[in-house]
Design goal:
single chain; 422 residues; Arc Repressor Mutant, subunit A; Aspartate Aminotransferase, domain 1; Aspartate Aminotransferase, domain 2; 8-stranded mixed sheet; 3-stranded antiparallel sheet; 14 helices; globular
């Protein structure tokens, strides 16, 4: 594989056959295959054998990007608007004062009492089933810990396509096999989820509830009902819900949790309160949460109580008004989608801060937009089998930018006839 003699997608010989060819013990070949799988070089598909992965798991999708040179506006990075993030000084000062009175020492419970209480109350308010609360260092950390706690290398995981690039990197890096699931503006397509489970043997399904990255999709009540019926017929499948849009959207949450035996719902504070806080609250069935917290104790031990208490203070004082933040992003996002529609360009963005534009030629569109003064995110960062596209982040746009950007996109893309991006 290192010399390129084996091509991406090529099926590897059965272990006993290769052992006979090489004249070595089958256990030696099995160990080599295991190492390659753990490093993300090959993937295993049950009885169908092992094959070379299309791309190494160590090649992060984040490297598929366009650097914005001087004078070029960057609408590619997916970051929130700093002006919409709350000031942290008062919260840190109050937490530091309390810490001086009673510092956190070894042996304490991993979840701060107030953080856990407020997180659970918010879950309850949104109809999330009862379950213990944990804290992780962001959504991806929580999802990684859940997958590692419940799955084994070689297991298939249904992921949205297009979907979060970091997650599409994480799944194969864990030795798991990603199965693409098409999405539309209402979330994952039920028939695609059913097919991933029945035909591809997916043992886990990951769903973004609101403000999906990169498409802005939000799971509606009707779509949630369809997905619950599909998942309810497969109770042994692990369900992971990512609600990173909590705090920046006004669309109601329609949780899928509770229809499978094992489930987790994760909420990061990154988009609403600041990426560097590195906190996500999660809840789920008692067994899964216990496994995750147990393994966490053997690594970092716990997420800093200073950070947990800072977030709890921000929650308790209402430092972020979701309606205000959602309105600010919505005005920019919806304005851009409408401006593109007037120019005959298809665009998607129901919630959050991103707009997804299907394009016939991704490289050409990115290059032409760069020449026009705009750096956008190439769709290759976010897709597996889905068609080409580009992602535009609206968080840095002013009202006066919307028409200018729409004109540049229309000039680079041209009108499209297709109406789906799954």
């Amino acid at each position: 594989m290192g010399t390129g003699a084996l091509q991406p997608g090529q099926l590897l010989p059965p272990m006993r056959e290769l052992a006979g060819t090489l004249g070595v013990n089958p256990n030696t070949v099995a160990a080599a295959y295991r190492t390659l799988r753990e490093r993300g070089v090959i993937e295993t598909d049950g009885r169908r054998g092992s094959r070379v992965r299309p791309r190494p798991a160590t090649t992060a999708r984040g490297s598929i990007r366009v650097e914005a040179p001087a004078g070029v506006r960057d609408v590619s990075n997916g970051s929130p608007d700093p002006a919409l993030l709350p000031p942290l000084g008062e919260a840190f000062a109050e937490v530091a004062r309390r810490y001086g009175e009673q510092p956190v020492l070894y042996g304490e419970v991993p979840v701060d009492e107030e953080f856990g209480r407020l997180a659970r109350a918010a879950f309850d308010a949104d109809g999330v089933p009862a379950g213990p609360v944990g804290a992780a260092s962001g959504s991806l950390d929580a999802i990684e810990r859940v997958l590692a706690a419940r799955l084994r290398p070689g297991d298939a995981v249904a992921v949205e396509d297009p979907g979060w690039g970091s997650l599409l990197d994480l799944v194969p890096a864990l030795g798991l096999r990603p199965v693409p699931v098409a999405v539309d503006d209402e979330g994952p397509l039920p028939e695609a989820v059913e097919r991933a489970i029945r035909q591809d043997g997916a043992r886990a399904v990951i769903v973004t509830d609101r403000a999906q990255n990169p498409t802005g999709a939000c799971v509606t009540a009707s779509r949630a009902g369809e997905l619950r019926r599909v998942l309810g017929a497969h109770p042994g499948v692990l369900l992971v819900e990512d609600d990173h849009g909590h705090g920046i959207v006004t669309q109601p949450l329609h949780p899928l949790a509770g229809v499978t035996d094992h489930w987790v719902l994760v909420r990061s504070v990154a988009k609403a309160y600041g990426p560097d806080l590195r906190i996500a609250a999660f809840t789920g069935d008692a067994e899964t949460v216990d496994r995750v917290l147990g393994r966490q104790r053997l690594g970092p031990g716990w997420v800093s109580k200073l950070l947990q208490r800072t977030v709890a203070h921000l929650w308790a004082t209402g430092a972020v008004d979701p309606a205000v933040v959602a309105r600010a992003y919505g005005k920019r996002r919806d304005g851009l989608v409408r401006a593109l529609a007037r120019r005959g360009v298809e665009a998607h963005g129901c919630g959050g801060m991103n707009v997804w534009v299907p394009v016939p030629d991704e490289t050409g569109a990115v290059t032409r937009l760069l020449a026009a003064g705009w750096a956008v995110a190439p769709g290759a960062r976010f897709r597996m089998a889905a068609g080409p596209g580009i992602r535009l982040t609206v968080s840095g746009l002013a009202a006066s930018d919307v028409e200018v950007l729409a004109g540049a996109v229309a000039g680079a893309v041209g009108p499209l006839a297709a109406r789906s991006y799954g």
